[in-house]
Amino acid sequence: MRLATVVTDRGERLHLHTPSGYVDVASALGDERFATLNAVLADVDAGFEAIRGIADREAIEVDPADLAPAVPAPRRVLCLGLNYRDHALEGGREVPAWPEAFVRGPDSVVGPYADLVKPALTERFDFEGELGVVIGKGGRYIPAAAALDAVAGFVVLNDGSAREWQRAATQWTAGKNFDGTMPIGPEVVTADEVDIGDLALTTRLNDEVMQSARTSQMIIDVPSTIEFFSSFTTLRPGDVLATGTPGGVGFARKPPVWLTPGDVIEVTIEGIGTIRNTVADESPNGGSAGSWRWHAPIKTGATL
After folding, report:
1. Which of 18, 186, 252, 266 could make a disulfide contact with 90, Cβ separation 3.0–4.6 Å?
2. pLDDT digits over 260-273, tens only?
3. Where exactly are the structural domains of the chain?
4. Phi, psi of 54, deg, nearest 5
């Protein structure tokens, strides 16, 4: 199945994408408890079984601009860094012996065709096309052999990064959590629809290919990623795992390539879909947007 969250005059509502269009899940089932993805994931087996029964219902066309984040306001996005060998090496790092993990919050998430917000406090705004994993059943201490049983589906995402903020300290949180910098979508593609072990991932900037890799090149594969994160935190329905980006990002190019307003950045993953976002300047909501430019200087020798 392919599940989309659509902005309607009744708010954001879960839809099933069928060959004939989009079906409003709650309306088709006559049960408003199915109006959101999070509600369905709370009892994922029963929810998915019910949704499969409406595939032949009357469908409507949906403007791509009306697609909200495929996982609206996730509780958290648990992220892996340096999970492709070529990306680690292009940044002057060793291939990590331990997973490089960080967390994003819900305010950083935007829709698959929404503006990608360039923070006012960075001139080094970068792209990172990635495969996202949406947790269904979740749990704690999930072994890799059973990990896919915890998965609701997969999405495409772009881990937009403010490199000055990421590299100014040893922790990456600040550079990875500016509002509106992680598009997620276009839909949640359920685990029975796609084999994520070896899919093509391509990132294009203004139609030029910047990243081209396969998910089989991950250092830590999806089942092991789930095992790792669930070893120290309970995974909950609707959590998203970001599995890392391949080589080709902007900071590693010579000269570096930074995202600027008006740029169009696309990330495509075979069998899952494409997100396409236009870069837009942040509109500060009062106050001085430049109050932190730069009281804390970039570390000497940091690679941006």
Report:
1. 252
2. 999 999 999 999 99
3. 2-66, 77-281
4. -110, 15
